Amino acid sequence: MLAAIGSYSQLIRDKLHLASPLLRQPWLSLYLEGLCSPSSSLADGPVTVGMSLDIASIDTISEINMDYTATIFLRQRWTDERLVFEGNKSLSLDGRLVELLWVPDTFIVDSKKSFLHDITVENRLIRIFPNGTVLYALRITTTVACNMDLTKYPMDKQTCTLQLESWGYNINDVMFYWTRGNESVSGLDTLQLAQYTVEDHYTSVSEAVYETGNYPKLVFHFELKRSILYFILETYVPSSLLVVLSWVSFWISLSSVPARICIGVTTVLTMTTLMMGARTSLPNANCFIKAIDVYLGICFSFIFGALIEYAVAHFCTLTHPDAHIYMYGHHMHDFDDEKNGMVHTISSHSNRAKRRKEADTTPNAASASLELTVSTSSPSGIEPNPEASPPEPTHWCITVLTTIRKVLRAIYCCHVENPHHIDNYSRVTFPLSFVMVNLLYWTYYLYF
């Protein structure tokens, strides 16, 4: 076994000798003797590995896949006593020799797809300092999952994470820490994103517990706030203007059926198209209702309500006995003032003669009604026997009659005297209701 290890170390020394003359140093030979046994470098306890990140770019943030793609520079530092050498200058090694050295087995936990840049060579940096400190840097592009809560979309804030763990070494072998705390991550201040702004970021240290043991874990949290200006210009303003456009029909006469139907149907179809376009950039299988869906639903309800309003008003004009008067001449009472004086004189004389005739027949009618009352009450003028009176109605009959009376009264209250007033009321109620709903909507989603 020892012979095999010695031959393997000799093979590595030969490769290093051929790779670069700078590597012909005795301290490196001593390091290679124990390379096949990483535990020799961990004999005095766990190796502490300090990490720092530089965010080069965040390319895309996808709500459909719920992930983000970022390019990062990952830098790791640790001290290996076997690599101590004399001198005051650091030594930079070729990145292709990293397989010949011990490095931490760090991986990104929630990564869906990652790759190491290799143009023109693999983007790796290995630098060894005289005290045995090793700097190992990588340039990685990774797509990381980010669980998003889109309930307040597009007024939402998302908190995404980048988690780094050790794959094979547990906390007894390796310990991770951030080299400068929250300042260990740089590059976010100058980062430009399409729809987001980075509001806050911080780091944390924890442990990952698995069936195979506890492993060191570093977490980088960053909070993204979505820019709502794009959605205001793209969705909110057009949908609000469509609602206002549907109110134009309230100022058109009820007799103009094609004009009012055209406005109602056009706004409904346009709003439907706008709602379908707003959902294309979002997941299709969301189990929650987003804020933009609520607003589009409100606008669609107002537009559809304006169309239904005309249907109700038109139906009332058809069922009303004086519908033609309300639709085509609600100022017909002015026509009486334009009649000639002859008609007024004849009508006044006829009314006067009619009143005189009614005055002459009033005493006779009063006496006849009195006689009729006496005769019907009793043949002999005596009050009827109480036993012959009809029985009093039961309690349930009174309840039924009271209920019917209330229903009839409610139906009578809903009766429209003038269908032309429906449009007059709608001109006020629809705008006021839309303003109130908007105040409640924006207050809730912006401050709660």
From TrEMBL:
Protein name per its UniProtKB record: Gamma-aminobutyric acid receptor subunit pi
Origin: domain of life: Eukaryota
Keywords annotated in UniProt: Cell membrane, Chloride, Chloride channel, Disulfide bond, Glycoprotein, Ion channel, Ion transport, Membrane, Signal, Transmembrane, Transmembrane helix, Transport
GO cellular component: apical plasma membrane; chloride channel complex
Family matches, as Pfam families: Neur_chan_LBD, Neur_chan_memb
Gene: LOC115596735
Assembly description: Heteropentamer, formed by a combination of alpha (GABRA1-6), beta (GABRB1-3), gamma (GABRG1-3), delta (GABRD), epsilon (GABRE), rho (GABRR1-3), pi (GABRP) and theta (GABRQ) chains, each subunit exhibiting distinct physiological and pharmacological properties.
Keyword Transmembrane belongs to the record: yes
Cellular location(s): Apical cell membrane
Gene3D superfamilies found in the cross-reference section: Neurotransmitter-gated ion-channel ligand-binding domain, Neurotransmitter-gated ion-channel transmembrane domain
InterPro entries assigned to the protein according to its UniProt record, in alphabetical order: GABAA/Glycine_rcpt, Neur_chan_lig-bd, Neur_chan_lig-bd_sf, Neur_channel, Neuro-gated_channel_TM_sf, Neuro_actylchol_rec, Neurotrans-gated_channel_TM, Neurotransmitter_ion_chnl_CS
Spans traversing the lipid bilayer: 228-252, 258-282, 294-313, 428-447
Membrane topology value: Multi-pass membrane protein
Role of this protein: Pi subunit of the heteropentameric ligand-gated chloride channel gated by gamma-aminobutyric acid (GABA). GABA-gated chloride channels, also named GABA(A) receptors (GABAAR), consist of five subunits arranged around a central pore and contain GABA active binding site(s) located at the alpha and beta subunit interfaces. When activated by GABA, GABAARs selectively allow the flow of chloride anions across the cell membrane down their electrochemical gradient. Pi-containing GABAARs are mostly located in peripheral tissues.
Sequence ranges of Polar residues compositional bias: 361-380
Family affiliation: Belongs to the ligand-gated ion channel (TC 1.A.9) family. Gamma-aminobutyric acid receptor (TC 1.A.9.5) subfamily. GABRP sub-subfamily.
Position of the signal peptide: none
Residues annotated as domain Neurotransmitter-gated ion-channel transmembrane: 235-442
Catalysed reactions listed for this entry: chloride(in) = chloride(out)
Chain intervals for the UniProt region annotation (Disordered): 346-392
Chief location category: membrane
Domain Neurotransmitter-gated ion-channel ligand-binding: 44-227
GO MF annotation list: GABA-A receptor activity; GABA-gated chloride ion channel activity
